[in-house]
Amino acid sequence: MMNSLPVCFCSTLWRKNWESTKATDTKAQLLKYNQDDCRTLKHIVEFIRNLNLPQSGPSVSQIPLKTAETEDLTKDRPHWDLFGRREYASGDFKKVAQCAYFDYQRDKVYVRTHPYFKVVNKKRRKASTGVNKVESIESYRCPQCQSKKIVKGKQMSHDVIDLKFFKNGVKRWITRVLSWRYCCSKCGNSFRSEERPPHPTKYGHGLMSWFVYSNVARGMTMHRVEKSVTDIFGLALPPAEPYRSKKYLMNLYQPLYSEILQSILTSPILHIDETTVRLRKQRGYVWVLTSMDKAYYFYKPTREAFFLHELLGDFRGVVISDFFTAYDSLDCEQQKCLVHLIREIDDDLFRHPLDVELKGLAQDFGGLLRIIIETVDRRGLKSRYLHKHKRSAERFLRSLAKAELVSPVAKKYQKRIQKSGAKLFTFLDHDGVPWNNNNAEHAIKRFAKYRRDADGRFTEQSLQEYLVLATVFETCELNNINVLKFMLSKETTLEGLLKMAGRRPERHRALSPSHEPCLGFASPSTNTISDEPLGTQQAARPAVLPEER
Asked: Which of 45, 175, 315, 377 can pair with 539 through a Cys bridge, CB separation 3.0 to 4.6 Å?
């Protein structure tokens, strides 16, 4: 029976028998097992050590070994990587597999035995470049001496391929720009009538806006966007051109990106959240800050929140967040997302249906929140209607603190609620402070959807391009502005964005709590709040929780 067991189990039985009998044969078996184990370990160490050494003699294996970080072994492959190019250990296999690609066979192989492929595989004809408009740029004075005695020389031209948007449609629009070289007869200065770089841009703002709108705002991959532009408008573009349009618009909106951040930091409330992102060579986190009408995305390589102390050093409003412990050190009033907490309690109720103490805690907490949220639905987030619930909330916190619980799960939530304490009910003290982290969760959902196809392919540059554009587009959507119309307007200021939403320039007024806080609640500070109705005239909506956090 011993022979049928694995050696590792037999060694345990040998050791136990030897300790009781001190038999010589058992000791010999143990020593032989240990020696074999050491020899095997030695071979493994030498093998690993030789992986990074230059091979001077004949190699044990001619197949190069692929290595990976252990933390990556447990991660699922991203969606885009399932059908991507794979790495081959054998160069011969790689060459054979490359010759099996669908397009390669149709273009290079089948065409030799199936004549009709010569017709089918004809390259797409170059799109018609009929010019819709001609612009002439002429000069009448020398820019150096202002003399009118100038001689027109060689004519130059370049075409700008664009999309022109009308009230009920869009069409391809090609503009030919004509300019000339001039020479001044008075001072001898040579100049051109058009100030442009040696290689002027070939594509217009409308076409580049269409690329970015389809990719970032509507979630199409750049390959599909390029294909649709070719099919619909007959424009055959270089594969890299759609990606250059993102860089162009990022540079255009960089001032607005900074302006949105400054506006959020002066608002009376601030939602914050973060989620993971995988770059080509490292992992990091995408953070989002939102107010009621603006969103700001940015990237950090780690989840450490030390930077928040500097970023939010002058913030004097209320921070709304989840229960990530790094937020607790912020020097400002905070409101914890109640949706996160009740969802976790509810999940544990399913896992522990017989836990009476957990059921009692959930019943008390759920009953209190239900009454409060019913008032919010009827009256909105107004402290003069919510202050009546502060005594009930205080009574719940006191009774929970005095409770002697035995259930480990119930005790966990008891400690958690005690730790957060008044931060669970800060919204009762102020007008317009939500009780959930809905705004930040909704903003994160935008990135989570985009991440499905792009995770693992980001570089820091491409990620930053997306985050700048996502900041502008999310802010537009929070103000019910058509993103494409905003891009075509070439507006680059926050004032212009708000004007397109029909809003007046922002002004601020002080927070006005209606009543004194009860025992155990943080005192409301005299912060500022926008004249715009920050949720005071509308009922709180259910929190939107992203599917891919």
From this structure: 377
CA 88 → CA 96, 98, 297, 527, distances in Å?
Answer: 11, 11, 38, 62
Closest C-alpha among 464, 534, 477, 466 to residue 506: 534
- Residue 161 CA, chain-centre distance (Å), reads 32
Contacts of 101 (CB under 8 A, 6+ apart): none
Cα Rg of the chain, angstroms:
34
The residue type at 78: P
How far lies 519's CA from each of 70, 338, 339, 392, 414, in Å? 51, 21, 24, 12, 19
The answer to whether 448 touches 548, Cβ cutoff 8 Å, is: yes
HEC assignment per residue over 258-311: HHHHHHHHCCCEEEEEEEEEEECCCEEEEEEEECCCCEEEEEECCCCCHHHHHH
Q: H or E stretch including 136? A: strand 133-137
Q: Which 3 state secondary structure label does DSSP give 159?
A: strand
Q: Which residues of the chain have pLDDT under 70?
A: 1-9, 51-85, 121-129, 506-549
The per-residue pLDDT for range 478-499, each reduced to its tens digit, is 999 999 999 999 999 999 999 9
Q: Which amino acid is at 486?
A: F
Other beta carbons within 10 Å of 211: 25
pLDDT of 512: 46
Largest CA distance in the chain: 118
Measure the CA–CA gap between 217 and 229, rounded to whole angstroms: 16
> 228-273: per-residue pLDDT in tens?
998 888 888 888 888 899 999 999 999 999 999 999 999 999 999 9
Q: Give strand pairing partners of 161.
A: 174, 203
Locus of tokens 């720009």: 177
Q: Any idea where the domains of the chain sit in the sequence?
A: 2-50, 133-202, 338-428
Q: What is the DSSP letter of 1?
A: -
What region does 278 belong to: left with phi over 0, alpha with psi -120 to 50, or beta? beta
